Task: structure prediction
Amino acid sequence: MKKQILHVVAASVIAVCTVLGAAQAAEKVKIGFLVKQPEEPWFQTEWRFADKAGKDNGFEVLKIAAPDGERTLAALDSLATNGAKGFVICTPDPRLGPSIVAKAKALGLVMVAVDDRFVGSDGKFMEEVPYLGMDAHAVGQMQGKLLMEEAKKRGWSLAETGAIVNTFEELDTAHQRTSGSVESLLASGLPKENVFSAANRTTDIPGSFDASNIVLTQHPEKKNWLVIGMNDNAVLGGIRATEGSGFKAPNVIGIGINGTDVVAELEKKEVTGLFGSLLLSPNVHGYKTAMMVYDWVSKGVVPAKFTPISDATLITRENFKQKLTEMGLMAEK
Ligand code: FCA
Result:
């Protein structure tokens, strides 16, 4: 009898331990990471480093594509259902800010915005939502300055040089970058009448290709072109348009922003009009925002309202492999 009781006790102890173990495993903190354009290497890199933060610190990152408002709000429901406590987001539209905040509050989720800052119904930034992003205006100014330096190196006549400015005014970070870039062009002596705005309908290569084509058709008199845009894809679409209009690489200079999305272009055998890109820090954006949400939900550390990340390095055909490798950004093949 005694032996039997002992067996029962032992079995119960084992059962309790198993249940506790399972509960502990189930308690692994989960956070979401929502991005507006999962097809962009920029966002894939942010995801990769958010995952790394999770691996290094024992939490799980649920990576979700959020290309529009409907899917963004649905994703918040599924995060809550899956036991996530918070999320990082690059919203498909900053004006969704108020709905995202309301929904997250109702579901008890905390959030950090990355790259694109939420805008409230009054048109002002929603500063109550912690945000991590770059100094877009300064990076834009750098783009314009470097383009003019390269044009001068090539000995271009500025009177015969046009600038295609791929704009996307509804997004503040895009506006900051392209307006900063234009400031630098003008400060370095490009005549104002040679700067042409190309409003992009979408923030991808087809969007900038179409808008750039219109400028090129309207200005057949220009011999050389500078191509500006808020990121790599905005510049790449412009480069493709110049090629379609018969311009050769020596007469075109484009410098992107991101650095992650020009690798295939810089690896091409034939030199193209894409001279280089300003490489930012998607590794830091991904890792740090994931940690901000994790520390918030697991340790109660509320993140700063604004975390600026300001590094930008020019990468060209000469140094891109080395720079990307140094930062751990060269994708394994
Ligand atoms: C925006 C752009 C991205 C990247 C990021 C820093 O979200 O769409 O390509 O440049 O800012």
Q: What stands out?
A: The pocket of alpha-D-fucopyranose is lined by residues 40, 42, 90, 115-116, 173, 203, 231, 257-258 (CB under 6 Å). The two ends are 65 Å apart (CA to CA).
